[in-house]
Amino acid sequence: FDPRHYLGTHCYGFPKTGPHRLRFLLESVKDLRETLKKKGGTLVVRKGEPEDVVHYLITQLGSVSAVAFHEEVREIL
Q1: Which of 26, 30, 43, 69 has the fewest CB atoms inside 10 Å of its own CB, making it the most exposed?
Q2: Tens-place pLDDT, residues 3-33
């Protein structure tokens, strides 16, 4: 979870993630974790800026051959 997603928007300061969306996200992650566990997998969930968290995880795991992610599209006004 990137803390920047829970701050205000760039232009008007409205919250990007309100309480209902946050609850949905948490329930979705919990469900995904449970589904993966039933299939013998796991889900790593961390809070922090992705560029720092991913670097830390790669360093800890040591045998990572690829990393894939997406970046939020920002509207330019």
Answers
A1: 69
A2: 887 777 767 777 777 788 889 999 999 999 9
AA letter at 16 = K
Type of residue at 70: H
Residue pair 21/15 in contact (Cβ under 8 Å)? The answer is no
Q: How far is CA 44 from CA 10, 47, 62, 77, in A?
A: 29, 10, 15, 35
Is the full-model pTM beyond 0.70? no
Task: Identify which of 42, 41, 67, 53 has the alpha carbon closest to the alpha carbon of residue 3.
Answer: 53
Work out the average pLDDT over 59-75. Answer: 81
